[in-house]
Design goal:
The structure holds two protein chains of two kinds. Chain A is mainly alpha-helical. In chain A, 68% of the residues lie in helices and 0% in strands. Chain B is mainly alpha-helical. The longest helix of chain B is centred in the first third of the chain and has 37 residues, at 60-96. The chains are: A mainly alpha, B mainly alpha.
Amino acid sequence: MTADGTCLELAGKVPVESAPLAGEDEEALIRQAQAGDRIAFDALVRAYDRKVLWLILRIVGSAEIGRDLYQEAFLKVFRTLPGFRFQSSFSTWLYRVVVNICLDHLRKASTRAEVQPAGPDGEEEHFQNLPDSRAETNPERALESQEISSRLKAALRQLNPRERVVFELKHYEGLRLRAIGEICGTTEETVKNCLFRATQKLRLALSDLR
Amino acid sequence: MECRKFQENTLLFLYGEISPELRAAMEQHQKECPACSAKLEEAHRFHEWLRKGSGQEPPPELLAACRRELSSAIDRELEKVTWRGLLRDFFAGFSAVPATRAAGLVTLLVLGFSLGWTLRPVAKQSVPQSPAGVSSFDAADLANLHINGISQVQPDPATGGVKITMDAEKRVTLQGSLDNPRIRGVLIDALKSYQNPGIRHDTLDALRGAGDDPTVRSALLYALAHDPNTGLRLEALDSLRDAGWNSEIEQGVIQAVRNDRNPGVRVEAVNVLTRHATPSILPVLNHLASDDPNPYVRMKCIDAVQRLKGDGN
């Protein structure tokens, strides 16, 4: 407990950074944002955008593209929020928007064959600049972490766009298979198979490193 | 349970995506079968290892840039929407009147347009063709003239000329360094009073790095407190952050933390205050940690208070 005892008590009432807001708070914010309240919309963005940006960066691998997709995603949310009818949770709806934008980008990029072969120059630019709190005090761990990161990114590039998205949503975002199915517009069974295939491919690609 | 079934479900077991009954059966099998237990352990290690390869958060400066850009994009979006709305309202007005009246309105419009078109050559002919006929201005000046409004047009049948009385401004270009007080003065004026947010944005850009000058600092504080555009208030805050920190800036930023209507600006203001931590900001942050209407701002304040207290220890 802190000296004045206030902070810890309050800490329990506010959401963890970037975690979804509590149900009632969130619904009130959404309704205000739907009615054109800009502050409420900004608060909604702030509640999710850290996780969203992190997801986008991991999926597309480039800070520059991530910046564009972040804006595209939230502008789309801004335009279409008045049509949100609370038939799914807001986070599922938001992730659906984000994932569709990422999938579109990955598909276009693989058609143009621009992103996939980019390797160290493009795709991994932001990962090389990321602070790793676990490794920063230990040079050996830092090197190891860099090596792992670099190999993992290469392995992730071997997954097709949908496998990549499913793996990210499950492994790093920790979403339920059913929610991932809703986000990707498919069944839980298909998501399960996709996750199996992605994991298999990663195990194969990284078998020499473990 | 058979080993085959155990191994088929290993992945879902690790992700917690199996029923409680299946989990209990698998845990039982794990105890009884060393081979399956070893495979599960290996799969678990692989999962943990995969996590090592990914950081935990996006770079904060990238997130801040994304937020700023989004805010400006939404401002532009809202401007577009306003224009669309005005046009829609205008045309919606037509649908609200009865058909006969609408037809009358259209007829009037067509008649007005036809009349204007018929008179157009006459007006053109009545303007003297020679630049010498333009009495108050040199002809070359006219190109640089911005006409705000015409208050009177007097044709002169005797000469065939015309006298036009209007409010007009002449466009001039100032060029020079920021050290020039006149240039600084114009920029400060633009920042405080110009309507166009694009011009205010360019002005803020031009003033970046000059925040140590008291007049510029005061203009930046004014922009932080009063600019209607969220993105520009954030930019003003950015410029102040890099200026020489003093009590005047601290008070301005504290006001932003307390009063800005946008939680994003309040969060950035908390970040700036935390960076230039002084004991005087603790009560402010403590107060906001409980009273700010936005949960994210409250959380940032709590975090800042804890960090400041940590630094003090």
